[in-house]
Amino acid sequence: MPASNPMASAREILPPPAPGLDFAAGFGHPQSCAVRAGGLIFCSGMLAINPQTGEREHGTVTSETRRIFENLKLLLETAGSSLERIVQVHALIYDRVEYDVLNRVYRQYVPNAPPCRTVWSVQIEAGLKVQFDVIAAA
Amino acid sequence: MTAKRQAITPADAKLDIPKTFALPYATGVKACEFIFLSGMIAVDPSTGERAHGSVVDETTLILRAMATVLEASGSSLAKVVKTTVWLHSMLELEDLDRAYQPFFASAPPARTVCGARINNGMKVQIDCIALA
After folding, report:
1. How far apart are CA B29 and CA A21, in angstroms?
2. Measuring CA to CA, which residue among B62, B67, B68, B22 is closest to residue B44?
3. CB of A71 within 8 Å of any CB in chain B?
4. Which of A9, A11, A31 is the best residue to mutate to test the B interface, defined by the most B CB atoms within 10 Å of its own CB?
5. Over 70: is that where the pLDDT of B33 sits?
6. Which residues from chain B sit within 8 angstroms of residue A34, using beta carbons?
7. In chain B, how long is the greatest CA-to-CA distance?
8. What own/partner pairs with CB < 8 Å and gap ≥ 24 does A23-27 have?
9. pTM of the model
10. A135 touches chain B (CB under 8 A)
């Protein structure tokens, strides 16, 4: 097996599109906001964080989902992609009971040809209720 | 055109978690420009058995094994684009970060961490997507 593939594309760290979305600076987490490689954009788990101040915006599933989609829109559009180009979403919610609440707000942001999605319920950082893990076409 | 899809099998059988535990999944799959690794748990590199430990211990074992598996396939931790971490309790997020950071000291990959129950009482599970 060749040690390196001459066709391999670069791995490009995308800078945070706003100061509040710099997870390394804001929360000390060893992670980049997003990475572009092989024609795709891999986003770090996106939370309801104010993109300017970096403060967490604890709210309802609806309000947190809205903020997450706004942050993803900012991140993806800054990188030349868009919400329409999302390929896959892992939607993490704090309680499966709110599945329908998630769906009602979610469909407003991806009204046509929505991406693949898997939902599961977990403990989310700092008591937030929603986190989206997104892969988009670059 | 159909893209190739190739299983990644660790040269060191002790790191082949699905083989050790007879589980129906691949350690990894290479397709297009990417290598996708299944969720890895901490195993003792000398026996292949589960290595229950602290979050720091388990994270360190997992990322060492991940580096070995990726390097044997022509990739490396430096080519990882995304990781997903399942942690037994989000109260230990700081412990995770402390063990995780040295493996990705510069230009770290995108990451999602969530708190979940993991099979067999392990404390950490990590999967990844890397450039091949």
Report:
1. 32
2. B62
3. no
4. A31
5. yes
6. 110
7. 47
8. A24/B108, A25/A54, A26/A54
9. 0.92
10. yes
CA–CA distance, B34 with A86 (Å, rounded to integer): 18
The answer, for B129 touching chain A at a CB cutoff of 8 Å, is yes
Q: Does B11 touch chain A (CB under 8 A)?
A: no
Q: Helical H runs in B9-82?
A: 17-20, 55-72
Q: Per the CB < 8 Å rule, is A123 touching B108?
A: no
Residue ranges of alpha helices (H) inside A1-135 are 23-27, 61-78, 99-109
What tokens appear for A26 in the block? 């804001």
d(CA B97, CA B93): 6
The encoded tokens of residue B10 equal 């660790």
**Is residue B1 predicted with pLDDT exceeding 80?**
no
The CATH number of the domain covering residues in B5-131: 3.30.1330.40
3-state secondary structure of A77: helix
CA distances from B17 to B25, B74, B87, B131 (A): 9, 20, 19, 22
Confidence grade of residue A2 (pLDDT, cut at 50, 70, 90): very low
- CATH assignment of A11-137, given 1.10.4160.10, 3.40.350.10, 3.30.1330.40, 3.40.50.150? 3.30.1330.40
Model ipTM value = 0.90
